[in-house]
Design brief:
The chain is an alpha/beta fold and 306 residues long. The protein has 8 helices and 14 strands. Strands 6-14-13-8-9-10-11-7 form an 8-stranded mixed sheet. It has a 6-stranded mixed sheet with strand order 2-1-3-4-5-12, with helices on both faces.
């Protein structure tokens, strides 16, 4: 079966006007917004700070209507070239049904971010069939590794991943498919909604933080039972940061849980690739075509389909 085709987003050349939007959780420190602006400028982009980017309402970056308005203003503005989310956290699921996907379909724009931004990526995939970028949020200090991968993804649209020599082969094999997924907890929360990502013919990228292994197990089972894994070609797990294996009354290693899932699906699985809540991460073009080779410990982006 041929891999589904997704539309290529525009390349972000120097001079691109990039909206800095906080669609989920609030910024934690005053200097983070300045860092986000500085990060954009280092790529030669002009940062455009959304009206409510510095707002805070409890654990949200302002009221739902304001966060939604910031996204839609950026999507509808023909002079905005991309959206770079300043933070993850929590909150996008609250506004998914109000996003102007028609505007994004008419004028495709790159969307960059990870963690809770997974919900936005999944919705864009489902509603617009557009490549978007699972990569650093704008507020983060960018390591040379992260900066290089982000540049290869959104500026040059070349292979932004590559070799992961420290990765662990969980189930051997090779596979080709669309890059799909993101944060495991967010994907599980989308089950049963019209915004759940289509994982069929996909190389499933997963990462998480602060989730004991038994909860990782539960979320994988939820996705399996929902049918979300049907047709999945491979699993590439990044980092599970602060995910203890001894919670819930007894320990089981993460790799054992991943191995059970991969064997049940009959797909290759690699763990420990540089994706997730870590200082140096790949930017993954979700919707692009890639090849996973567990023996070589490589994830290679082969085509930004258009």
């Amino acid at each position: 079966m041929p891999v589904k085709q997704f539309r290529r987003a525009k390349r972000l050349e120097p001079g691109a006007r990039v909206a800095l939007v906080a669609p989920a959780g609030p910024l934690q420190k005053p200097e983070e917004l300045a860092r986000a602006q500085g990060n954009a400028r280092t790529f030669g982009w002009e940062p455009i700070v959304a009206l409510h980017a510095s707002d805070r309402t409890g654990y949200l970056a302002g009221h739902d209507k304001d966060r939604l308005n910031d996204i839609n203003v950026a999507l509808r503005d023909p002079n905005i070239d991309a959206i770079w989310c300043v933070r993850g956290g929590y909150g996008i699921i609250r506004i998914l049904d109000g996003i102007d996907y028609d505007a994004l379909s008419r004028t495709p724009k790159p969307i960059i971010g990870y963690s809770d931004i997974t919900a936005l990526h999944a919705a864009v995939q489902r509603k617009c069939r557009l490549i978007s970028y699972h990569g650093p949020t704008a507020r983060e200090p960018l390591s040379d590794f992260s900066r290089d991968s982000l540049e290869r993804a959104v500026i040059h649209q070349t292979d932004s991943c590559g070799a992961a020599p420290n990765a662990r082969e969980i189930n051997p094999g090779t596979a080709e498919g669309r890059l799909v997924g993101g944060n495991l907890a967010v994907l599980a929360s989308l089950c049963g909604t019209p915004f759940m990502a289509d994982l069929s013919d996909g190389i499933l990228i997963l990462e998480d933080i602060n989730e004991p292994v038994y909860r990782v197990d539960r979320m994988l089972q939820q996705l399996r039972l929902s049918g979300a894994f049907n047709g999945c070609k491979a699993i590439a797990f990044g980092e599970c940061v602060k995910c203890p294996d001894d919670a819930g009354g007894g320990g089981r290693p993460l790799d054992e849980i991943l191995g059970e899932t991969a064997h049940a699906l009959g797909v290759p699985c690699l763990a420990g690739i540089p994706i997730g809540h870590i200082d140096s991460q790949w930017t993954v073009p979700l919707g692009a075509t890639a090849t996973l080779d567990t023996k070589a410990r490589t994830l290679t982006v082969t085509s930004y389909t258009s």
